[in-house]
Design brief:
Elements lengths: L18 H23 L5 E3 L4 E4 L2 E12 L4 E4 L4 H4 L5 H13 L2 H4 L2 E3 L2 H14 L4 E7 L2 E7 L10 H14 L4 H11 L3 E4 L3 E6 L2 E7 L5 E7 L4
Antiparallel strand pairs: 1-2, 2-3, 3-4, 3-7, 4-5, 6-7, 8-9, 9-10, 10-11
Helix pairs in contact: 1-5, 1-6, 1-7
Length: about 230
């Protein structure tokens, strides 16, 4: 009797996903992208030109999409798709795509024009948006009492991959964000195009001939994170 090959389930947004689940799926990849951007720009501060739709870091200029902005005085996030009169249609395409996803899947955080929240939570919105829409990274510019979050894309942002980077990104993600670690490990592995294997109490990411093994408690918390490089 022929044994059917098990088909790997791709990482997608599903109709019963909460924002916590969505962040779990896409957040580690977003942090991976942020690290790539940081390696390129270093300590340079971005100069945002909304009229031209660009941000400049020294000699490096990148096109942007406005995701939204945070008001410190109001503790309020506003999606850019609700401010077409300010930014213009061309600069809110990415934000409008996120609204469409929010409408389709019933994600309040994406579909509500305004959210009462804090600055850290705004980063999670930008992280999810960046990874879902496959932008290269996001950046925050402070202007006139507002923190403006923009998605960026540039051929100059090099995708840097290593076993150690994968381990460190995932470790920091599960440690510093309220997410589902098992979902996060599987999603990060698959979105990076690495091999993935699930066992009862541990998962394995295969990166070339190297391995990352992540152990979990019954509640899904991380118990160990082991790295075995090719030469070990």
């Amino acid at each position: 009797m022929l044994k059917l090959k098990e088909v790997e389930k791709p990482i997608t947004i599903e109709h019963d996903d909460s924002f916590k689940v969505i962040l779990s799926k896409y957040g580690a990849l977003a942090l991976d992208k942020q690290d790539n951007l940081s390696q390129l720009i270093g300590d340079d501060v971005g100069d945002l030109d909304i009229e031209k739709g660009t941000i400049t870091f020294g000699d490096i200029k990148m096109p942007v999409q406005i995701l939204g902005f945070f008001s410190n005085d109001l503790n309020q996030w506003s999606w850019a798709w609700d401010s077409e009169d300010i930014f213009g249609e061309n600069l809110i395409r990415a934000a409008s795509q996120i609204k469409a996803i929010g409408d389709e899947f019933g994600i309040v955080e994406f579909a509500s024009p305004v959210l009462q929240t804090d600055f850290d939570a705004c980063h999670t919105l930008a992280m999810a948006s960046t990874a879902i829409l496959k932008y290269d990274a996001y950046y925050v510019v402070s202007e006139d009492g507002l923190d403006i979050f923009v998605a960026v894309e540039s051929d100059e942002i090099e995708e840097i991959n290593s076993v150690k980077k994968f381990r460190d990104i995932f470790y920091n993600f599960q440690k510093n964000y309220r997410i589902h670690a098992k979902i996060a490990f599987e999603a990060y592995t698959k979105l990076k195009g690495y091999g993935f294997k699930a066992h009862d109490d541990f998962y394995v990411a295969k990166i070339g001939e190297s391995r990352i093994i992540c152990g979990f408690t019954e509640r899904g918390n991380v118990t160990r994170l082991l790295m075995y490089e090719e030469d070990d």
